[in-house]
Design brief:
single chain; 650 residues; alpha+beta; 3-stranded antiparallel sheet; 25 helices; 51% helix; elongated
């Protein structure tokens, strides 16, 4: 399922999933088997809705935008019964946890917690009366895009109005999420622990810093501006307050073979706090997804499977960063798979018909995929820069200019800053030294590499690993405790963790391996307009989506090969009038008659072209394959013969 945000990918996936599991349940051989299948089917549907709470958010384009990609595999028994389901995810947008754009919200689950928790729970989880009081849940309006998108809403967008998503308020969503956790096997204690950790993420966002004196080397040292906020966050994380403050305000480094504690300034401490919040939420997400897969039974032993891929569509915004490059790389890879599938189907038909096709040059986006994710590509350079002690975003872009500007001139370029150029306004905001452009299969995109190194590093600081390994909550202590036991790269890192982009690329490779052994079907989801207005079709908007979906590849592949494919009976019926003066040519087997007709028609044209020798046309087992130019040339004598017949009939 592919399409831009809000086009209906998630809803389409849910409908397909629902139809498959219900069809399988109805095919069960006995009432007991039907009941068992019904339970699994219900869990599969509930699991998808639960993951929406933790992985979906309101954006300016979509009230329920999936901020992760997922591959759901239904496993079937020999009798056709659903035996289980497994869910793999790709690239959860963890940056949204600590910062979301104006006009958008954090993940739904935060607002459900704030809108639906009881008074007792609110006190235990240290929740404030209004969502606006929590920094990570704060909502700021974006005008005019958000207002335009919500044109049907009579009242102005306000933080209070933001409590409603897709016609459902957050309090109702809280009740449903709690019910789904129970249905999927979470005990009361496990559910309580998950929500406590979730509340801890909110509490971390409310920890601010002030200058607390001079650190080592004379630098300004950060300290919590409100110690009570740090105490509350530590309590919810299940760690000591002093340990939390130490992890947020200091960093251990090796200098001259000696471990030295460096005090962070307020900006670095705030960055460490945000990083910790993202790590905690990522651990919570992995915990929930793992428990969901356990509840769904996996079914890995069953060979019969149907997989559904719900993945983010091609993205192009005013400001495109690390997330957009990963998303657009995924779409480049998916476009390559789509084109390969179309080409293989085309070639399979040629093989069945005995048609030679080794001379056909098909379109390909392999160069784009290689430039982004191949050896020496953009992601490889990013990983390399992350390993350099003093690596920077600016140095990364300079390396990309040096490597790709001459080697890939049609695919890579520097940003343009002339009058009216897209890079002019953004350069003033992020700096021109971090901007570059990539020509994708869909369109050219200008990216800013600001903050890429921080986002790409997945290795957790030793202080953070040590802190969370000591948490009272197993969902934190178990994964971080395991990381603590792994051999470290250095004092400042806890494990030889691959980069974020590396993990993402590997997941795409694994997905590709799975798709290679399947029969693939592609569903393209399209929005008729960007304002959610009924009975309105914006042709330019739809055309852009078709381009982003790579639908043009269907035409390109068709043009590369033989677009005109006519069964011999159809060919003879259409062009027999060309040789009415030579009726004997049409005698005999259809294939031979078609060859004689084709050669005779060519003889009536200037130059007497030999289309068969030049492979502009080929004779298959049951069809004649022609390029459009051949069909157009044949139509000249055909139309002339029809005109003569019309005159004679008069």
């Amino acid at each position: 399922m592919s399409g831009e945000s809000g086009s209906g990918k998630t809803e389409t996936t849910k409908l397909a999933l629902s139809s498959l599991v219900r069809l399988a349940a109805s095919a069960a051989m006995s009432s007991a088997a039907a009941a068992a299948a019904g339970i699994i089917a219900g869990r599969v549907l509930e699991a998808g809705l639960l993951l929406e709470a933790f992985g979906n958010a309101r954006t300016v384009r979509n009230s329920n935008s999936s901020r992760f990609g997922k591959w759901q595999t239904l496993h079937f028994s020999a009798s056709g019964r659903v035996a289980g389901c497994s869910i793999a995810h790709f690239l959860l947008e963890t940056s949204r946890v600590s910062s979301h754009p104006a006009g958008e919200r954090n993940y739904h689950i935060f607002y459900q917690l704030l809108g639906g928790a009881s008074a007792k729970q609110r006190a235990a989880w240290r929740l404030k009366p209004q969502a606006e009081a929590h920094a990570y849940a704060r909502w700021t309006p974006a005008e005019p895009p958000l207002k335009q998108q919500r044109g049907a809403m009579a009242k102005e967008a306000t933080p209070q109005a933001e409590a409603y998503v897709g016609g459902k308020d957050d309090a109702a969503g809280w009740v449903e999420t709690c019910s789904r956790l129970t249905a999927l096997g979470f005990s009361d204690a496990q559910r309580e622990a998950a929500f406590t950790v979730l509340a801890a993420v909110l509490a971390l966002g409310d920890v601010s810093f002030k200058e607390g004196g001079r650190g080592r080397g004379g630098s300004d040292a950060a300290a919590p501006a409100e110690p009570a906020a740090a105490d509350g966050a530590a309590s919810l994380l299940g760690v000591r307050s002093s340990a939390l403050v130490l992890a947020l305000t200091t960093r251990r480094v090796v200098a001259g073979g000696e471990a030295v504690t460096v005090h962070l300034d307020t900006a670095a401490a705030a960055a460490a706090r945000d990083d910790l919040a993202r790590r905690v939420y990522s651990a919570l997400w992995s915990h929930v997804l793992g428990r969901v897969n356990e509840a769904l039974g996996g079914g890995g032993g069953e060979a019969r499977t149907i997989g559904l891929l719900d993945v983010f569509g091609f993205e192009l915004f005013e400001r495109n960063g690390f997330e957009q490059l990963c998303i657009n790389y995924a779409n480049e890879v998916l476009q390559g798979w789509f084109m390969d599938a179309l080409i293989k189907r085309e070639q399979a038909e040629y093989a069945r018909e005995g048609v030679v096709c080794d001379h056909i040059e098909y379109p390909s986006n392999a160069e784009q995929v290689s430039m982004l994710g191949g050896k020496g590509g953009i992601f490889a350079l990013l990983d390399e820069e992350c390993r350099i002690p003093r690596g920077s975003d600016e140095a990364l872009v300079e390396k990309m200019h040096a490597v790709f500007e001459k080697s890939r001139p049609g695919l890579y370029s520097r940003a343009r800053f002339g009058a009216g150029a897209a890079g002019a306004a953004l350069a003033a905001e992020v700096g021109p030294e971090t901007l570059f452009c990539v020509r994708h299969y869909a369109e050219e995109v200008q990216y800013t590499a600001r903050g890429w190194l921080d986002k790409n590093r997945s290795a957790v600081r030793h202080e953070v690993t040590e802190l969370l390994a000591g948490s009272d909550y197993p969902l934190l202590s178990l994964p971080f405790g395991a990381a603590l036991e792994a051999p470290p790269l250095s004092t400042g890192q806890s494990s030889r963790a691959p980069s974020v982009s590396g993990v993402f690329r590997e997941s795409l490779r694994s997905l590709g391996a799975a798709l290679l052994v399947t029969q693939q079907h592609f569903v393209r989801c399209i929005k008729p307009n960007s304002t959610k207005t009924p009975h309105s079709l914006d042709a330019a908007y739809v055309q852009r989506q078709l381009r982003y979906l790579g639908v043009g590849a269907v035409l390109e592949i068709g043009r590369a090969g033989y677009q005109v494919k006519l069964p011999y009976a159809s060919f003879l019926g259409r062009y027999r009038c060309v040789v009415f003066d030579q009726p004997g040519l049409l005698d005999g087997p259809p294939r031979e008659a078609a060859e004689r007709l084709l050669r005779a028609a060519a003889g009536k044209l200037d130059g007497n072209p030999d289309w068969l020798a030049s492979r502009e046309a080929q004779l298959g087992t049951s069809k004649l394959f022609m390029r459009p130019a051949v069909a157009a040339a044949l139509d000249v004598p055909r139309l002339a013969a029809r005109r003569r017949a019309a005159v004679a009939a008069q």
